[in-house]
Description:
This protein has 297 residues and is an alpha/beta fold.
Amino acid sequence: xxxxxxxxxxxxxxxxxxxxxxxxxxxxxxxxxTAVSHHIRGLExxxxxxxxxxxxxxxxxxxxxxxxxxGASKAFRILEATVxxxxxWPEKTTVRIxxxxxxxxxxxLPRFADFCSxxxxxxxxxxxxxxxxSPQNVDADIFITWGxxxxxxxISEPLVSVLSAPVxxxxxxxxxxxxxxxxxxxxxxxxxxxxxxxxNAWFMEAGVSLNGPLPGPIIEDTNVVLQAAAAxxxxxxxxxxxIDTDLESGVLVQLFNTTVSESRAYYLVRPxxxxxxxxxxxxxxxxxxxxxxxxxx
Length: 297
């Protein structure tokens, strides 16, 4: 018996041939148009034939493609009927999202009730990951990570961009006074996250010259950094919008309007195909909608 192509590739091809559009096929099987195109290119390479004639945004199935599409449609109908006849479907689908603790605490968990309302049939499992870990090495359906968006072999979409600004607790400002200019911050206790580069970049953006290394403790964990600021231990570089709740509640105060746009961002990363790719794609669309300016308004 000859080896068969991958099932996701055949599924994407059958939908595209039936609907006459890669985009319509993507919507029908709940994946991105890029994933459909990738599956079909791989299938054509595997079979060493051309399945579609591409004309701009239009696609037309070839004679060989039509024969394969007819057989695949019949096979999927038989397979679906057989699976339905023997399966005992679980009440919920488990979806694993891997992410760091600070993003989970400050961005995802405030939206948890809305998520449960939007996906009542999904059992969500959050998997904590180290800071510098590759999505390819994590057992999860969706990976939210900080980086430049380059994750070979994965679908990667920007989720949340951040701005850095100095923030402090009202108690610290009452004790030490309110800085009047950005240069005044050099005489305040500063706390650094991971390294001193964040503060260095902000002082440069604010037009403040530094005569040497900045003093102050360096803390790895974002939640610990912000907790230290809230406790009045020092001034930190806060990441907007992850600190929006703290600013709105008055736990922290932004000291100056000058901000620094980070060169990296939080990205939504997932495999191009997987066991739960349909519901995974829906969840990713929901997460992206939550991060849109319209959702924040």
